[in-house]
Design brief:
The protein is α/β, with parallel strands linked by helices. Helix content is 38%, strand content 18%. Strands 1-2-4-3-5-6-7-8 form an eight-stranded mixed beta sheet, with helices on both faces. Helix 4 (129-143) crosses helix 6. It is globular. It starts with a helix and ends with a helix.
Length: 312
């Protein structure tokens, strides 16, 4: 197996951690994310958008910040699609602020506004709380759709990595609550707490290792990780009944630790009669589009994602 040439060049230019591969703690992963993403997003454009911050109340009464990115002022005569977005970070890192340049890019290119949820992360927030925060944002957008000029029947959930897993959780909760979700857009999703070993063919290329994944899931599940007691509203791959879920777009690199669990999730959706598009991209790792923002393959993939947004 080979890595995409442009991605390989981009990764070689990034500053590497001093820690040996496969030994990072959650604190080190969070610090590395905080330090790396301002550099990764430097090449992205900064389009002018309408940006506001709202608040939702989560299941435990905690206040969750919701960042609204819109290409236009509210027009009560027009109803648009909208996306509830959850950022990546392995359940332990990342923030709306770090991932906002990517969100702005989606909004500017598609014309679809995003509500990005600053959900709580592990280990400070464990169990169902991160997913409950994202679902609180989903419910809030439905409740305030008229105010924001949004069609409540055209609200999608979307995320990258851990955020994609939380978007999938929100789609499950919305189905169970009878709340309409038009589409779930899952970019290299983190779905299964049992993924703690890597394929030997892809292991040399991993940018998110099996140890990183173990650390991330341990932060929210503790001793429950890998046991029979983990519910699908924390790890969506545990779901037994996929029927009635929102149509899905799933995308993952062939050199990603999450490749196989993403393929299995798509297969489970198909088996339940749920419409799903699956893209497995050769030569690409986890987070590849963020590491190589000016690559040719990213330009083509971004165009496809924008097409999905237009179809909401």
């Amino acid at each position: 197996m080979k890595m995409d040439v442009e991605l390989g060049a981009a990764l070689s230019e990034l500053t590497q951690d001093d820690e040996p591969a496969g030994t990072r703690t959650w604190q080190e992963i969070r610090q590395a994310t905080d330090e790396m993403y301002p550099t990764l997003t430097r090449a992205l454009e900064r389009p002018e958008l309408d940006e506001r911050i709202y608040e939702a109340s989560s299941v435990d009464g905690a206040s969750v910040a919701l960042h609204w990115f819109s290409p236009r002022a509210v027009d009560s005569s027009h109803r648009t699609a909208a996306v509830v977005h959850a950022h990546g970070g392995g359940m332990i890192a990342g923030s709306v602020a770090l991932f906002a340049p990517y969100v702005r890019e989606y909004v500017a290119r598609s014309g679809v506004p995003f509500l990005s949820v600053d959900y709580r992360r592990g280990p400070e927030a464990s169990g169902e709380l991160p997913g409950q925060d994202v679902f609180a944002g989903t419910r809030w957008l439905h409740d305030h759709a008229a105010q924001l000029g949004v069609d409540p029947e055209r609200i999608a959930v979307m995320g990258e990595s851990a955020g994609a897993g939380l978007a999938a959780v929100s789609a499950i909760r919305a189905r169970d609550a009878g709340l309409p979700v038009a589409r779930q857009i899952l970019i290299y999703p983190m779905l299964d707490d049992r993924t703690v070993t890597s394929d030997p063919h892809t292991a040399p290329f991993l940018t998110w290792s099996a140890n990183d994944n173990r650390v991330g899931w341990n932060a929210v599940l503790g001793d429950r990780r890998g046991t029979d007691g983990v519910p699908a509203v924390i790890a969506p791959a545990r779901l037994d009944d996929f029927s009635g879920l929102a149509p899905a777009y799933l995308e993952v690199g062939a050199l990603d630790l999450f490749r196989d669990e993403t393929v299995r999730y798509a297969s489970s959706l198909w088996a339940a009669g749920v419409d799903a598009e699956l893209q497995v991209l050769p030569g690409l790792t986890h987070g590849w589009d963020q590491f190589a923002p000016t690559s040719r393959v990213r330009a083509a993939t971004l165009e496809r994602r924008v097409r999905i947004l237009h179809a909401i």
